[in-house]
Amino acid sequence: MESITPSNLFKERSDSRAVGRGRGEWKYRAFSYLVLTVCALTMVVPFIWMLSTSLKPEKEILRRNFFPNQATVDNYSEVITETNLPLWYKNSFIVAVFSTISVAFFDSLAGYVFAKYNFPGKRPIFIIFLTSLMVPTEMLIIPWFIMSSNPPIGGTWVDTYWGIAFPGVITASGIFLMRQFMQGVPDELLDAGRIDGVSEFGLYWRVAVPLSLPAIGALCIFNFLGNWNAFIWPLIATSKSEMFTLPVGIQLFSSEAQTPWNLIMTGASLSVVPLLIVVIIFQRYIIEGIALTGLKG
Amino acid sequence: MTLARKKVVWAYIFLAIPIVFFAYIRIYPALFAFQMSLHDYNPLAVEQPYVGLDNYEQLVKELNKRKSPTKAAFQNTANYLLLGVPIQLCLALMISLMLNEIRFMSTFYRIMFFLPFVTSTIAIAWVFRMLYQPRFGLINVMLQLVSLPQQPFLNNPRQALPSVLSLVVWQGMGFAVIIFLAGLKQIPRTYYEAAEVDGASRWHTFRFITLPLLNPTIVFLLVLQTISFLRMFAPVLAMTEQGRGGPLDSTTTVVLRVYREAFTSFNMGYASSLTVVLFAFILVITIIQLRVTARRIN
Amino acid sequence: MRFIKLFAVLAVLIALASLGTVALAQDDMVEIEYWQYNFQARVDAMNELIAQFEAENPGIKVVHNSDIPYANFRDELAASAPAGVGPDVVTLFYGWIPAFVDAGYLVPLPEDPFSEDFILEHFSPMVANSKFEGSYWAIPTAVRSLAMFWNKDIFAAAGLDPESPPANLDDFVAAAIATTVYDGDMDVFNITQQGHAAALASQDHHWFREVLLRQYGGAPYSDDGRTVTYNSEEGCAAFGWLAAFETEHMTGSNDILDGSTNAFVNGDTALHVDGSFRIGTIARNNPELNYGVAELPVGPNGESHTFGSYWTHGITRRANDDPARLEAAVKFLQFITTPAAGTLWVNSVGELPAQAAAASDEAILSDPILGPFSAGLAYSHATFFVDESAQRQVLIDAFDNVRLGGMDPCEALDEAAAIEQELIDSFWASR
């Protein structure tokens, strides 16, 4: 099982790392640190500016100071009490959690079937699933839009959680990734289970899933991030402010003639900061997850 | 029932929902988009008349005009792509080579580079829009501090596209860095040791060992970034005045045109024909990728 | 016997049940849906009108959907149409009407009570002129016109009389130059206080098309509205006059100080051209702003013109499908377009009543803020748009070509006219 955990991708890190070189090495090191520091600053300054602006009183927004002269949380209380931002938060969260649970289950189940079962039509079905990866979402939004306003079940999917989430409840890339991992599940274990009378679903649930948890975890993190930040479809699938997700709400803060910078920066901070904290805590898993999905997908 | 048959039945039971999902949510809408592109499709109207290839003819006509929003959209998308992909890959490769050799604070740097990637594009695009503002935007404030002339950035047709592109490169950099780092880890250390014994210079080591062995990673990133630049939408919507892709259509993209045609002008037929063209581009790129990958394996 | 009893009981039950159904049916109210985009003052005013209407018509219930932001309003109407849901009565910008008529989304207003004579007699001329394809398709509660806003404090600080705003175009330029403040060389980016900033994306494309152009002796379109005529000598002069604020006089730009509208509301601009709906924005965002409103400056020949526009209510084909709902919708439409409704509207939204009787009310005419807008109604023009957003974009681009690309105003207008002519031609070709 060693070979399929994501963390060992980085195991040989220390081995392949910098081979000592004599002359001029420290100059190169110093240069590297200089370049990296400049680049890293470029990466964080916009975030600091965002936070600092969100703490400025309205009168200071259009001034030239970097930090607020009189820091205030007025913008935060205004955003929380006078806009629907708390609802957008809730909506983004519900949609992201719902899709992630669904993806974790269906993608791993389908991946398991493609890895471990032989059945007529397996190849064509798999190819059809994969082909759908080539169809850009942008091509589907117009048909989805027409379908959601007149769906087979329910009056309309516009302005419902299902309407926002449905395009992402099963993903082809996730199925492909899970198939790669599930191939590492030993057949002997599954056969032994069958002899013990474990049901087919039980084999998936109690043998395959526990052995693939790292991959499922990576898949979940990605899915959550992807759904949390998803924009074009939620923009089209919602019309009522109470049903917006965070990115849609932030985009529509600015109206015909107004650009309420203080509210936008506060909304942006509220949407970004919790995510940054989560990312810093779980950075190892997430970075390895990216590497993993990147390399396999 | 034999075990083999039982397994077949279970396979289909397990796959039933995904099959229905892909058929109804992915395949059928894709075919529907093709079909819509052959109609004068206005969602407000009672009838959606069949117009054959009119929408495609219209597209060709627009592209042949001296100036048109559609033409600008295709030209800009090409510019984003041809500038953005090389810049992003070169910067990311340089950073990851450096990151790969340092030990002190390497995790810290990795987190820094990768933070933008996990944040919402819309939120951060608005932050950049503010950074670029004349007078009170941070960049112009800094220009003034060092007595350089103020720049219009997003308000100037020549500067707007590079300004939007900078955000995209900034945000996507972390992803490329992480992938490059993972690629670098997989190059066996023995190659470098051999090179060192031979006294190869840093440049030679990079040119003859790192670069060739990193080739699969580069191809992978090239394809992924190309596709993501082709689909560019949110940054332009957030960063241009009233999301119009201006000034003078200098930042508009194919997907922004799709959005405007479909949801502002209700020309869903024409918008669908644009998405079909987009699909064709992505298909060609994917096929090239498969070819390249296959050749390497052989 | 048991069976007979059972039958009797059943019969009674059935009779009762059917009576109940009848009673329910009589009780059953007609429910119609009304949609407008989210603009708080309008939402509040309409809620009040609906409450009054429902009190007068106990059999009708109006469901008010006002959640949709401006940016999404058209998409969401489009989303509702294929599903056969959506509004029975909908409020649209008048410039959108042709597109919605073209799609078959709206039905003509019924002759009774909205006969042509009735509309011609009672409504503002710009509403009377809105006949399209031989019918009236929508009718407004209120109308708006453009007027000039000026900041009295800035005038006083610049040594101008805060109570005498510029009356003609030359005075306007002079006042704009006198009130501009730079913190360095004379350059747009060094402006800390603007005299005037021309912004075609907001109201200035209307100011050019229907006001300045006419004052310079030109006309934006041919009389039938199907030929673009602003690419004339007069057009060049008017367009050049407008562009000079940024390129020559350097009194301001829409690109600085957070856009021309915000800049005026925030107190950073001396002169601004806008509609009466901006009064509410100022009251909400910067109530201390010391400003006045006057009629637009007259042209070189002393001519007065202004641009008139309105959000207007139409009946959809959905309402038309059901006689009961259609009847209710017509009643509702009638109710919200009375002079009384217009008066309620002007007090909460700041838009002027569409019925002339209420708009020329003494209280409005003598109001220092609303008076100039009301006076303008007499000489206002409403452009006939086939696609308002596309036609606006054409002029925005022409203006950007002049101010950002250094193009000659005549050349920019020629290019704009060619594009707009094509838009108009393709609209009529498909009819």
Radius of gyration of chain B equals 24 Å
C-alpha termini separation of chain B: 42 Å
**Unreliable stretches covering 5 or more consecutive residues of chain B:** none
Structure classification of chain B? mainly alpha
Number of strands of chain C: 14
Derived structural class of chain C: alpha/beta
Mean pLDDT level of chain C = 87
The figure for the number of domains of chain B is 1
What's the Cα radius of gyration of chain C?
Answer: 26 Å
- The mean pLDDT of chain B is 89
Describe this structure in words.
- The complex is a heterotrimer of chains A (297), B (298) and C (431).
- Chain A is mainly α.
- Chain A has 15 helices and no strands.
- The two termini of chain A are 20 Å apart.
- Chain B has 13 helices and no strands.
- Chain B has helices at residues 3-36, 54-64, 69-101, 106-118, 121-131, 138-145, 160-185, 189-197, 202-213, 215-230, 234-239, 254-263, 268-297.
- The longest helix of chain B has 34 residues, at 3-36.
- The radius of gyration of chain B is 24 Å and the shape is globular.
- Chain B starts with a helix and ends with a helix.
- The model of chain B has no long low-confidence stretch (mean pLDDT 89).
- Chain C is globular.
- In chain C, strands 6, 7, 8, 9, 10, 11, 13 and 14 form an 8-stranded mixed beta sheet that branches. In chain C, strands 1, 2, 3, 4, 5 and 12 form a 6-stranded mixed beta sheet that branches.
- Chain C has 2 domains: 31-144 and 309-374, Periplasmic binding protein-like II (D-Maltodextrin-Binding Protein, domain 2), CATH 3.40.190.10; 146-307 and 383-429, D-Maltodextrin-Binding Protein, domain 2.
- Chain C is of the alpha/beta class and 431 residues long.
- At the A-B interface, helix 1, helix 2, helix 4, helix 5 and helix 6 of A face helix 1, helix 3, helix 4, helix 5 and helix 6 of B.
